[in-house]
Specification:
The protein is an alpha/beta fold. It folds into two domains: 205 residues, Spore Coat Polysaccharide Biosynthesis Protein SpsA, Chain A; 106 residues, no CATH class. It is 46% helix and 17% strand. It is built from 13 helices and ten strands. α2 links the parallel β2 and β3. The longest helix has 22 residues. It is globular and about 65 Å long. The N and C termini lie far apart (44 Å).
Length: 334
Amino acid sequence: MNPKISAVIPLYNAEQYIGACIKSILDQTMKETEIIVVDDRGTDHSVDVVREMMAAPGGERIRLVSLEKNSRAGIARNTGLSHANGEYVIFIDSDDEIAPEMFERMYDRAVQDDSDVCLCDAAKILPDGKVLCLGHPADAAGEVTEEKRKHLLTSYVTAMWTMLCRRSFLLDNAIYFTPEKYEDSFFVPLVYLYAGRISYIKEPYYRYYVRDNSICTTVDDTKYKQKVSLFDNLLSVIKQRDLYEKYREELDYVYLKKAYLVPTFNYVLNSTRPSKEVIRSIRAHMEEVIPGGTSNSYFRRDPKARLIEFLLRKFPTLGIQAVHLYSKASKDLF
């Protein structure tokens, strides 16, 4: 009998955390699950921890799949999906944990509603111990009408580890992760472009730990390029699927935020002396990909985005100062 849920965990240098992560899955109230750990060829003893757990009681539910070489989390997640047998699939990070009731309650709700996707909230735990709640658009649940799809595309939260997805839904619609960094930013919009019905339990079942050495906290004044490249790729894939024109306004707005403003923030906040030329180059690329992008109807109704964009364009020194002030005052970058 196939499991109800397959939990896919990409594993790379998580020796300190992988044991607690797997234990939180083994301790679920729902036992009809499988855990697929994808070894991304790290350099520590993470795999040894997994093998020890496989030899212990309950370890028969753990499967270890090894990649030939380090390929990053996106490829690891895709590989895990290709090995999954569960009716539903969820992707969990190796340094996070989940509440004991998460799988049972999300699966039951998804089956009850016949949903392609079931969402939950997450507790975002910062290095200093402060806890924030990550949620999804309040009206996400239910049948995904065209109006709701447009709303989800313009307001989604990139928290793919809170998304329990029907496996056949992902496979039938070729929804996958990109090999690039920030692969979740590629996956989530595709889910919302294709989902027919969504369930949403507004409980923080997922425990997302922000580590001091994680990708999102590592200082690197070139990582903005990875964000831009990823959304270039996403837009290209959507165009190939003939979905771009139908949701052009929404997708252009996503690009303005995620491939222009967020990368600009990333660059400014990670640079000791931000260059105005680099900031102009990020904007120039945006204008090349979506000509006339700032005339977008959603963007025109977004006062904070318009103000930051105006300052960066007309008064870059003030714009840089505004970026620092905004980032301190807000937990979200658009």
